[in-house]
Amino acid sequence: MNVSRSTSSTPTSRHDRRKLELERRRVQRRAAREKPVASPLRSPMAMFTGAALLVGALVVGFMMFSRPAAPTVNDLEPPVDEIPAGVLVDGRTMGSPDAKVTIEIWSDFQCPACRAFAVNIEPQTITDYVVTGKVRLVYRDAAFQGQRSSSTYDESVEPAAAARCAADQGLFWQMHNWLFANWNGENKGAFAAPRLTALATAAGLDLTEYDACMATGDQQAAAIDETNQGVAAGINQTPTLIINGQALVGAPRAYADFAAILDQAYAAAP
After folding, report:
1. Sign of torsion, CA 5 10 13 19?
2. Is residue 112 within 8 Å of 238, Cβ to Cβ?
3. Alpha-carbon dihedral 228, 231, 237, 238, rounded to 10 degrees
4. Is the bond preceding residue 239 a cis peptide, omega within 30 degrees?
5. Where are the beta strands (DSSP E) in the chain?
């Protein structure tokens, strides 16, 4: 019987099979070496993490550069007039207790007409009438304007409290002058807490005592209580000046007019 020899290329000997296996493994190793290694930075997780870090850095940077810096004394306008040396001051009063004329000044540190009186009329009144012993000034809180704001921070009550804290240090009138010198509108941030701190610094207050005083809330409550007392007594506009019991509503237009009123009150006083 004739049997033909196979012409297939399949290796028939163990040697040939071994040789073919080694060649296959060399090809696999060469391919593995030549295949580009995927960068970990290009993985989805790495790219997501990097993007998140970049966004976070941009947000932090924006907040740092867009947030207004806390005001300093250099950002403030100093008062034109200073408290005369030697004038008698007791808390929120100024002048001799024996003065024949007493002026109760019902005022709000946010009130533009109150500022007009404090800046344009009051300094000369102090020079001509308080220093000479004829008139005594008594400041009263009528903190109305802050009630018009939707904010829980009351820009009438807070400066009133700050001035009361200054009074505890014997510096009420200095703080009073700095507050009015730096008024710039109602409920617009002129008397935000950081700015009040800068004003307290400018007025010469001990900030440790000032901060402790403001933190209790007692002076805020006192300002509100006095405001309510004024309303109950008929004070509904600022400034209202009670001169020996007689009410003058609104700021005088000229100092000469006010001086004439004071002269009349002085002459009529017992």
Report:
1. positive
2. no
3. -40
4. yes
5. 89-90, 93-94, 101-107, 135-141, 240-243, 246-249
Q: Which residues of 206-226 are buried (b: 16+ CB within 10 A; e: fewer)?
A: eeeebeebbeeeebbeebbeb
Percent composition of the chain: helix, strand, coil (DSSP 3-state, to 5): 55, 10, 35
Most distant pair of Cα atoms in the chain: their distance: 161
Left (φ > 0), alpha (ψ -120 to 50) or beta: where does 169 sit? Answer: alpha
Two tokens, residue 77: 């306008």
Q: Tens of pLDDT along 109-147?
A: 999 999 999 999 999 999 999 999 999 999 999 999 888
Residue at 178: amino acid letter: W
Taking residues 229-257, what's their average pLDDT?
96
The CA distance from 78 to 175, in Å, is 11
Which phi and psi (to 5°) does residue 119 adopt? -90, -40
Using CA atoms, how far apart are residues 64 and 67, in angstroms rounded to an integer?
6
* Euclidean distance between CA atoms 194 and 72, whole angstroms: 9
In one-letter notation, the amino acid at residue 198 is A
Place of tokens 């976070």: 56
pLDDT at 147: 82
Contacts of 237 (CB under 8 A, 6+ apart): 249, 250
Quote the CA–CA distance of 114 and 120 in Å, as a whole number. 10
Measured distance CA(47)–CA(189) in Å, rounded: 43
